[in-house]
Input
Amino acid sequence: APAGAFALQVFAAPVGQRAPLEASIARLTRAGIEPWAREVEIPGKGTWIRLQVGGFDTRDSARKRAIAWKAAGAIEGFVVVRSSVGQKGADESADHGNAVPNQLHPGEKP
Output
């Protein structure tokens, strides 16, 4: 994953949902965007997978890039998060201003 304090979480779902995960990866790859995935254990919900992209220096630069990618159809939605590269629980300060549709719900932090 690229260096940078912020990333875009573009997919989050229970681990067993392989088809939507693979569709998201394919869409990103076609757009020339290299995602990375990580599994997290969520108390009471089980194991989830988070798909992230980017490596942005600021929250604003991440949001601006996400808006452009969304307009181009590369992503359906996003959450700006602190980069999870090498950090456990790094995205606790997520900005849910434009949550990933059908995967995240308001107030949820998978």
About this structure: Residues 86-110 have pLDDT under 50 and may be disordered.
